[in-house]
Amino acid sequence: MLIPGEDPFYYTTGRRPRFPVLMFDSTLNPYGSEELLNLARAQKIRWLIVKRKLQVRTEIEDEARIIALLQQDFEPVKRLDNYDIYQRK
Fold first, then answer.
1. Residues 6+ apart with CB under 8 A from 77
2. pLDDT tens-place string over residues 2-40
3. In the chain, which ranges are continuous DSSP H helix?
4. Three-state SS at 79
C-alpha cells in the first residue's frame, strides 16, 4: 500500500496492487480512515510505503490520522531518502 501513490511503483517493481485504491488524494479516496484500516487488514496488506516529498502536492483528507491508524498494524523497517517503509507486525 502506497501513500499517496503518485509513483509508478507497481510498474517499476512488477508487483500487482492488493489494495483497491492506488492514489490517495481528496478526489480519489472514497474511504474514511477507519475504513482504510479495515480494508488494509482484509486485503492482508503486508507493506506500507509513505512518500514524504511529493512531486505533486495532493491533499489527502485526514492524512495524519490515516497514517497513524495504519501504524497500529505496521512497524518501521527502513527510512530511505524520500520514503518510510513499514512492514505488518
1. 85, 86, 87
2. 676 666 666 667 777 777 665 665 566 677 788 888 988
3. 9-13, 33-42, 63-70
4. strand
Q: What pTM does this model have?
A: 0.72
Residue with cell 495524519: 64
Which amino acid, 67? I
- Domains of the chain by residue range: 2-88
- CA-CA distance, 39 to 55, in Å (whole number)? 27
Phi and psi angles of residue 86, each rounded to the nearest 5 degrees, phi first: -125, 150
Q: How far is CA 47 from CA 12, 39, 43, 50, 57, in A?
A: 16, 13, 11, 10, 23
What is the tens place of the pLDDT at every residue in 47-60? 888 887 766 666 66
